[in-house]
Write a structure and sequence with these properties.
Layout (H helix, E strand, L loop, with lengths): L1 H12 L2 H4 L3 E5 L17 H9 L3 E5 L5 H4 L4 E5 L7 H12 L3 E5 L7 H6 L2 E9 L4 E2 L2 E9 L10 E5 L2 E5 L5 E5 L5 E2 L12 E2 L3 E8 L2 E6 L12 H14 L6
Parallel strand pairs: 1-2, 1-3, 3-4, 4-14
Antiparallel strand pairs: 5-9, 5-11, 6-7, 7-8, 7-10, 10-13, 11-12, 13-14
Length: 251
């Protein structure tokens, strides 16, 4: 009985920050059409549900990102932005990650994320990718990619994307997570066919890295975590992501 009382007293004396649930904030302030609390096929409620199952409190933000919005947040998710990030928002997100925050970015169209990705030394192609191998259905923009060794790809051989942009980290701390076959291609002339002059090679579609005390992962596709496609290996990837994003050893 005495031990039980001591345990209860010890729990009561724990700092409030240790008792509070971690917080994930879904950015919805950049004209995102696909929402964390939405139940439509292309919404993100299933992804939010994985965070909830992992013990997170899920919040959304429709305002510009600044230090006040990010206070008390452990993980920031920005998926499918259609409006660019202002310079002060980029600075706030960089500071958030450097201080130990986790960041997940998923591209629907790449240009709105340009300044944010450059802040983390990531570049992207001007066109989405197509594949000759591992195509899903009849759309060459939907295909499976092979994975590279990383905590995020643990127990995975591949995952599916549905209209992905190629990504490239420009520093050694940025690791590739998934890439096309050597027959991936970019339709440079816009004829929707593999033609002379199109770029053909293996392209990276997802990367992960660190900055300061925090971590970030960027996916060249936002569909892979939407309700319709969050199954099988894509779901396993999302579960790995949710675990990996939260940094618990921040000084």
């Amino acid at each position: 009985m005495r031990c039980l009382v001591c345990l209860l007293l010890g729990l009561l004396l724990l700092p409030q920050t240790l008792l509070a649930a971690p917080v994930v904030l879904f950015d919805e302030g950049h004209a995102q059409p696909f929402l964390a609390r939405g139940e439509r096929p292309l919404d993100l409620s299933s992804l939010a549900g994985i965070f909830t199952a992992a013990g997170y409190e899920v919040r959304t933000c429709s305002q510009p990102l600044d230090p006040a919005q990010l206070a008390g947040v452990d993980v920031l998710v920005s998926s499918g932005a259609f409006r660019p990030f202002a310079p002060e928002e980029v600075a706030a997100v960089r500071a958030f990650v450097a201080a130990g925050g986790g960041l997940a970015v998923m591209l629907h169209i790449a240009p709105p994320f340009e300044q944010l990705l450059h802040a983390f030394e990531i570049e992207f192609t001007n066109y989405t990718l197509r594949e000759q191998n591992h195509v899903i259905g009849n759309n060459r923009q939907d295909f499976r990619v092979s994975v590279q060794p990383h905590v995020l790809t643990e127990n995975l051989r591949d995952f599916a994307v549905y209209g992905a942009w190629a990504l490239r980290g420009t520093t050694p701390v940025i690791a590739p997570l998934g890439q096309t076959s050597e027959h991936g291609w970019v339709d440079l002339n816009g004829d929707r066919q593999l033609s002379v002059g199109d770029a053909v090679q293996s392209f990276v579609v997802a990367v992960a890295g660190s900055s300061g005390h925090g971590r970030f992962a960027v996916f060249g596709d936002d569909a892979l975590f939407q309700n319709r496609y969050l199954e099988g290996n894509n779901r396993k990837l999302a579960e790995n992501l949710v675990r990996w994003l939260r940094v618990t050893d921040v000084p």
